[in-house]
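Hi P.,

Sorry for the delay on this. The queue was packed all week, but I finally got your sequence through. Input first:
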Amino acid sequence: MLNRSLKSIFAITLAMIVTLMQAMPAFAQSLLRDTEIEETMRDYTTPILRAAGLSPSSVDIYLVNDPSLNAFVTRGQNIFLHSGIILQSDTPNQLKGVIAHEAGHIAGGHLVRRDYGNRSAYGAMLIAAGIGLAAILAGEGEAGALVLGGSQQFGAIEALAYSRVNESAADQYAAQYMEATGQSGQGLIDFFDRFRAQEVLSNARRYPYFRGHPLSSDRIDALRERVEESAYTEAKDSDDHQHRLDMAKAKLRGFLEGPQVVFSKYPPEDQSKAARYARAVAHFKAADLRNAIREVDSLILEEPKNAYFYELKAQILYESGQREKAIEPARKALELKPDAPLLEIALAQSLLETSDRSSVEEAIDLLKSALTVETGNSYAWYTLSRAYGELGQEALAKYAVAEQAYAIGDLQRARSFAQRAQEDLPRGNPQWRRASDIIVVSDAQLTKSRGRRSGPKPLTFNVSTK
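Then the structure:
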């Protein structure tokens, strides 16, 4: 989680950058949050990070809603995977190979050592990327991913490219990590072979991944030689890992592609779990509640201990207006996957639709539990403010609004609600002290912002348009 004081540093500049990005041709991106897919990616990644000598708890993985083929790392040990690279991976081994390659860049220190070349353009891109990441971690996925995705517009795309030496080194690291975990490095070779034609395309026509990761036949040949020396060259993915990738791709397609496209890829005669999963989402998006529930119920009948089938059923019911009916499957999902923050928030929002005091109190407990893990989740703070309001606890409701505003960088509003909360909260209690912290930090950052505006003219960046 991003330290709150660091969030504040980025907060003032965020609104300006978002406004600028909206005026520019930006990618239609947002951050994807899904417990199931995040868990799958984490399980794929953890052994690789350990083999790379990295602490899994120190490396954050983010899923970006973008159909383009891309994956990249940023300083601070953050790995970003576009939805497109997950959908383009036929096997977990291919995806793991890409992740291992990115881990190689982190472990090899390539982000620190690279020759920046055009420092002005590169520095501007890093500033925008940092602000976008701060916004994402604060719970503003839409705005943050917009900035992050468009940050390449702040500098020439060539400035992002690793040197071919670093690329070859990351390939070798990837093969080493895969071997150390008893897995084949063949997936990365297969991935490169599939897109080998990118080598001869102009930079503008290449996938984003191969703009920042220049491909060459020599690289592929060197990697192949290294992988063929491994005792695990012929090792295959487990059935469980392949199934989990198939389910992740089905869910992504269901939510991100049009219903008719999904139905053509997963026709009714395909009765696999992945096909029914995708069709359940597609029927829901097509406002066909009956068939959506029928598909997801068939999955629950076949796999009654799968938390994510109940989670999907709860989402379908909640977003179709049957919000109280969503409580039972949401509760079952959390029972099967306890302490999952997103599942706690989902159940809490359904409980708030009742007029029952005990349900609202339960919702508050769930939200407070979720916020111990995702302290900057602005939607959870907003929902908590609603819950306190339902119970007539106005001081706590104002405090939760202050936290929600602080999380998204709205320091004026955060300061205002924190002051209003303090007037009614018992002096010295935890919420009163936290409100005091928000006021102090917000005041300092707002004063600093005003000083910047009245001080020397800031540096400007020349945006490359080539």
